[in-house]
Amino acid sequence: MTERALSFGAVAAAYERFRPGYPDELVDEVLTYAGQPVLTALEVGAGTGKATRVFAARGIAVTATDPDPAMLAELRRHVPETVEVLEGRFEELPLTRSHDLVFAAASFHWTRPEGRWERVAAMLRTGGVFASFGGQHKLADPELERLVEEVWFRYVPDDDVLPDHDAPDGRMRWPGTELEASELFRDVQQSAIRRRPVSTDAEYLGQLATVSAYLQLAADVRERMLREIRDLLPTRVEIDSDITLHLARATG
Asked: DSSP string of 180-213?
């Protein structure tokens, strides 16, 4: 798991180019839920800063953390100078400051289960907010998605790093299930933000090429797999890129 979590730095520029960013609507939902001014925030697994920048744009003093120096080097190119950057794994971050908000964008599944909620609670002031958001990026055409998955899983038979990634719509998903079970948090909410961007076939393949399971394959195998997927695609594809957002409040 740790090896996969640290695999993105080798493709940091491609990650920045092809991974989708986050909409203002997401920030609106988080700040509305908070119900009071959010002045400080810490991001877990900030990557190239796609989520960092939309929160920093609201005047929030964000501390962006990530264990991969190559990802943080790319992040620094895209975020305001007001963003504090800290290299380190979630489990190693100092617990010396309390924040109004701790958030994780498609990254919290990389954290170690043992003690994760105690650490988040220690990073938040009483009543502070934890937000986790992300989602699968699938082809909106179900038949085309099925064909692509057939190729993908021939080369990547085990890609289940996202808990509850295929849970039925409307059911509480991870990490909401763990937050509900924790006495350290209350008011757990789950919501979805619909996204259906249209990409070129090259952009879609570029995004696939930043997936951690893909990066674990040998170079020749990666090329062969992408070539087979490319042969299935039209020149433009619609992407099901919905965001699932979980929110919870620290009991303190």
From this structure: HH-TTEEEEEEEEE----EEEHHHHHHHHTTSHH
DSSP for residue 47? T
Alpha helices per DSSP H over the chain: 2-5, 12-18, 24-34, 50-56, 69-76, 116-123, 142-155, 176-181, 201-208, 212-215, 219-230
What's the token pair of residue 245? Answer: 């957002």
- How far apart (Å, rounded) are the C-alpha atoms in residues 91 and 143? 41
Report the side by side order of strands in the sheet with 124-134.
Answer: 84-87, 61-66, 40-44, 99-105, 124-134, 243-250, 185-193
CA pair distance 151, 226, nearest whole angstrom: 9
Q: pLDDT grade, residue 213 (50/70/90)?
A: confident
Question: What tokens does 179 get?
Answer: 């937050």
Sign, Cα dihedral of 131, 137, 140, 142: negative
Residue 11 tokens read as: 């493709």
Looking only at the bridges linking them, the beta strands covering 61-66 and 84-87 are: parallel
Q: Is the pLDDT of residue 157 over 80?
A: no
Strand partners, 132: 104, 246
The domain limits of the chain are 2-137+160-197+241-250
Domain 2-137+160-197+241-250: homologous superfamily in CATH = Vaccinia Virus protein VP39 (3.40.50.150)
